UniProtKB/TrEMBL annotation:
The organism's place on the tree of life at top rank: Bacteria
InterPro entries in alphabetical order: Histidine_triad_CS (IPR019808), Histidine_triad_HIT (IPR001310), HIT-like (IPR011146), HIT-like_sf (IPR036265)
Pfam families to which the protein is assigned, alphabetical: DcpS_C
PROSITE patterns listed in its UniProt record: HIT_1, HIT_2
Origin organism lineage: Bacteria, Pseudomonadati, Pseudomonadota, Gammaproteobacteria, Thiotrichales
Residue ranges of domain HIT in the record: 7-106
Chain span(s) of sequence motif Histidine triad motif: 98-102
Protein name (record): Histidine triad nucleotide-binding protein
SUPFAM superfamilies cross-referenced by the UniProt entry: HIT-like
Species whose genome carries this gene: Thiomicrorhabdus heinhorstiae
Gene3D superfamilies on file: HIT-like
Length: 106
């Protein structure tokens, strides 16, 4: 794991300002600064996992929590459908090495 904090860890720690949509003890949700849709949220776990390759059985509750949060966030944004995306690894298009789920909707 990279010892340097990711931009998302800095957002979680309030070192960098961000447009926070939702937060609880497990994750934070922000508006993407470069949206690809009318609604483009990033669901970010507070646990600093770099990629899906790092997940272990102990992370199933965290990942389940984030997945169950997605439809709630979509409804709160007025969406009746949405798309999700998780990029994993450099060749998978991941730019920030801290797991995050993109929620996109029209």
């Amino acid at each position: 794991m990279n010892p340097e904090k990711s931009i998302f860890s800095k957002i979680i720690d309030r070192e960098i300002p961000s447009d926070i949509v939702y937060e609880d003890d497990k994750c934070i949700v922000i508006n993407d600064i470069n949206p690809k849709a009318r609604v483009h949220l990033l669901v970010i776990p507070k646990k600093p996992l770099e990629t899906l390759f790092e997940l272990s059985p102990e992370d199933k509750d965290l990942m389940g929590h984030m997945m169950l949060l997605l439809p709630q966030l979509a409804r709160a944004q007025g969406l009746d459908g949405f798309k999700t995306q998780i990029n994993t690894g450099e060749s998978g298009g991941q730019e920030v090495f801290h797991i995050h789920i993109h929620l996109l909707g029209k």
